[in-house]
Amino acid sequence: MTGAGNDRLNRSGAFRSVRTALLLPSWLVIGVFLLVPVFLMLVFSFLTKEFRGGVIWEFSLAAYDQFIFDRGLFGDEPPTIEWTYITIFCRSILQAAVATVLCLILGFPTAYFIATRDSRHRMVWLFLVTVPYWVNLLIRTVSMKFLIRDNGPLNELLLALGAISQPLTLINTDFAVQLGLFYSYLPFMVLPVYASVERYDFSLSEAAADLYAGRWTILRRVVFPVVRPGIVAGCILVFIPSLGAFLAPDLLGGAKNFMIGSLIEEQFKGNAGNWPFGAAVAMILLSMVLIALMIHARQQSRTEVG
Amino acid sequence: MLRKLTLALAAAALMPAGMVSAEGKLSIYHWFEYIPQELLDKFSAETGIEVTMDTFDSNEAMLANLKAGKMGTYDVAVPGDYMVEIMIGEGLLDTIADGELANMDNIETQWLEVPFDPGRKHSIPYQWGSTSFSVNRDVYAGDIRTTAIVFDPPDELKGRINILDSQGEVMLLASMHLGIPQCTNDREQLKALDDLLQSAKGHWASFNSDGAKDVLVSGDAAVGMIWNGFSSKAREEGANVEYSYPREGLIVWMDNVVLLQDAPNRDNALKFMDFLLEPENVAAVTNFARYSAGVKGVVDLLEEGLKSQPEAIPPADAPAGTFIQVCDQATQEVYDAIWTRLKK
Amino acid sequence: MARNSAVRHYPGFLSATLACLFILYAPLVVVMGYSFNASQSITVWGGFSLRWYHEVFVGTESAKFKSAAWNSVTIATAAAILSTSIATAAALGMVRGGWFRGKALSFALLTMPIMVPEIVTAVATLIFFSAIGLVLGYGSILIAHVVFCIPFAFLPIAARLQGIEPHYEEAAQDLYADRGQIFRHVLLPLMMPGVLAGFLLAFIISLDDFIITNFIKGSGVETLPTAIFGAVKQGIKPNIMALSTLLLLVSSLFVSVSYMVGSLGNRGGRSRSGKRGS
């Protein structure tokens, strides 16, 4: 009896006792080479801007003030709520959300399809999905732009097929931005979902079918819950980078409106040269994402415990 | 020649970073593909100086890099005109004393006294050109020598205009259109500038600098703000575009070689600058980059096609060129606000 | 068997896969096509020519592009290997480490590299590297790449590990396998699809990085993205298309070889495990 009890204790995890050792390398690498610089940026966001880039070591809330209050073109009107940056945030979040949904709608079936192939062929399919990414994103995006322009091949094809009677205007639209984001991040959905579905035990589907569940009900009620970690991982990997992306929005969307990524970029690399403001926008974005992810992580560990 | 080149490259590849050859080194901070490799090899062959080059993709990125901690690693950099002024103001540039450059007299007179570096104490000309806009003549046959094409376009051009994604150039062109001075601190004028850009934005299809040529060639845009050298390339690639010399004014730009503060190899930097003031050498740059040099005696050494480009020959009544001015902090902040409002 | 495949397969999933592949590959057809363009343009066809391939191999800029390509591929490989190893350990610690204080924080830390906008990481890292006197060059690029590759490797691996029930380790433990054996012989094979997915993502994300690399690369060290972005001052020319086509060729070759090696290895593996079974 005692022996069995000991066994159970041991069983509670071969890796539990070495948890810290396992996590230490990642904590160290990210802690030193990312957390320290990010902390520096947090400090920067509370400093006075130096004209044309850089900071003056003097405490200031000007960066956050600029984000929240509108004081007119010359900065001397009574403050009202600044909608500019909220608009930019909402726009970016919407575009990233649409791109994530697009990636999920097309990426899940792709991952599922690959996972149900013969094990020898799966590698080939996976590589097929990633090989295009050997070509630089800039080049791929420029080529995508070539394809979807007003008198480009896509419109010619659709016209020839008789699907449309007038060329579609795709370039410089929101849809082009979403397509560009989808195109930039598709494998980041497909691969994690694949890794989860590949593990899925299809006898579960069979059991559900025996209980007269329909095929799509099985997908929704049986498959999805089991492969949920992969889907969540994929959504995180598509949504968050999409928030800060600027290449696809700039090239395909025409750069007429700032996205979060280009707004921050402008503060460091553009004429503005307002480092504290750039740092502040980044910190606001970071804390929003961080809070969302922490809530997710907490819920997840709660369900694990439960 | 080829073997020599291969040997030199192999030697460069094999040499550990810390090793210094007898004649020393030179570290250049430059745009990518803006100087022919043969020219660097020629410099190395003539002087025995080993050249390493780091590259940047915009003036502002270069400034951010230098300010974030790369000062003291490069000897020379190649900033644009307004950036030279900014770098002087930031104390990032070293002074070239009188007589330190043997070939100083080779600089064309008009480029000796420039507003961004009076007396040429820190820089020498590299390449220059103008910024304006080009119009697809298949789409619009009317008068294009006016900035109204961009800011108050005729119906056939509305919604088919590409703008350079560059605050300085857009603000200057808009100021020329309104006939107001650059960097004005007059509130009414600044408001007018803001209103003009807000109303013009509706006519614009996109902001794109890197693809400024491609949108004209592909026909996606019928009007495009563009640099003259880029426009001549668009024409050579088959686009029926004409480069405009608007009566309201012409933007000129110039890239310059500057001597950086704390240059680890100051003497070699000066040798390199002298090297680039030899007509033969800078002509090689112009033939490669297809803009114009600011050095005497270069014209005769240029390729035939370059001598006769309409984009580089202004009409007789064209206004004198204006460099982008560096605004003071207060005005620049309003400019930034206008730019953000334009793109919000 | 027939019933099995009926619930396994969904109508339309093949079409979705083909649609994905179509969207992924259509722009590449443009890239390949225009790499043979006789004209300088990337939008107007000027006839067939191999001039850009000639330029890539023996042109004046070829040495730079070749070293940039070499740097990119080696850095991506090293960064992917390192970050995948670190991420695998971290996934084990997170998923198999039970509940511990600060677990949510640890998760936030592991995913932080994707949350910080790249330009901010770039500027901050450059300031930090300069402050501690780290020499900028190949090494600094590699360090930065390992950092931002970690979440891309970690998330798929952790997701996969969550799908593996602990029974396998428990059974192995009952057979007195030590921790190393359990990892090598039980968990790692089960985790492999996740590890592979993480490795591939880390590889392509490192291969494609421009913003961070552009800030922290030292003098004379270029990667392909910095070379390509830098070259747009002169306009994108088909030589970059030719270079990209060659890279695709190399990667396809690499894939074919690894496929053949893999299927050989599989056969070997199967016979070995067969022996162990008997």
Topology of helices and strands:
The complex is a heterotrimer of chains A (306), B (344) and C (278).
Chain A: H1 2-11, H2 19-44, E1 47-49, E2 55-59, H3 62-68, E3 69-70, E4 80-81, H4 84-115, H5 119-130, H6 137-148, H7 153-161, H8 174-197, H9 203-210, H10 215-244, H11 247-253, H12 260-269, H13 275-305
Antiparallel strand pairs in A: 1-2, 3-4
Chain B: H1 2-14, E1 25-31, H2 37-47, E2 50-56, H3 59-70, E3 76-77, H4 81-89, E4 123-136, H5 148-151, E5 161-163, H6 167-178, H7 187-201, E6 204-207, H8 212-218, E7 223-227, H9 228-236, E8 241-243, E9 250-259, H10 266-276, H11 279-289, H12 304-307, E10 321-322, H13 329-342
Parallel strand pairs in B: 1-2, 1-3, 5-6, 5-7, 9-10
Antiparallel strand pairs in B: 3-9, 4-7, 4-8, 4-9
Chain C: H1 2-8, H2 13-34, H3 51-58, H4 62-96, H5 103-115, H6 118-132, H7 138-162, H8 167-174, H9 179-208, H10 211-216, H11 224-231, H12 238-277
Helix pairs in contact in C: 2-12, 3-4, 3-12, 4-7, 4-9, 4-11, 5-7, 7-9, 8-9
Write out key terms for the chains shown.
heterotrimer; A: 306 residues; mainly alpha; MetI-like fold; two-stranded antiparallel ribbon; 13 helices; 71% helix; globular; disordered N terminus; B: 344 residues; alpha/beta; D-Maltodextrin-Binding Protein, domain 2; 2 domains; 10-stranded mixed sheet; 10 strands; 17% strand
Written overview of the protein:
The complex is a heterotrimer of chains A (306), B (344) and C (278). Chain A has 306 residues and is mainly alpha-helical. Chain A has a domain at 82-267: MetI-like (MetI-like fold, Orthogonal Bundle). Chain A has helices at 2-11, 19-44, 62-68, 84-115, 119-130, 137-148, 153-161, 174-197, 203-210, 215-244, 247-253, 260-269, 275-305, and strands spanning 47-49, 55-59, 69-70, 80-81. Chain A has a two-stranded antiparallel sheet with strand order 1-2. In chain A, helix 4 packs across helix 8 (174-197). Residues 1-11 of chain A have low confidence and may be disordered. Chain B folds into 2 domains: 5-128 and 253-306, D-Maltodextrin-Binding Protein, domain 2 (3-Layer(aba) Sandwich); 129-252 and 314-343, Periplasmic binding protein-like II (D-Maltodextrin-Binding Protein, domain 2, 3-Layer(aba) Sandwich), CATH 3.40.190.10. Chain B has 13 helices and 10 strands. In chain B, helix 6 (167-178) crosses helix 7 and helix 7 (187-201) packs parallel to helix 13. Residues 1-22 of chain B have low confidence and may be disordered. Chain C is an all-alpha fold. Chains in contact: A-B, A-C, B-C. The interface between A and C is large, with 116 and 120 residues.
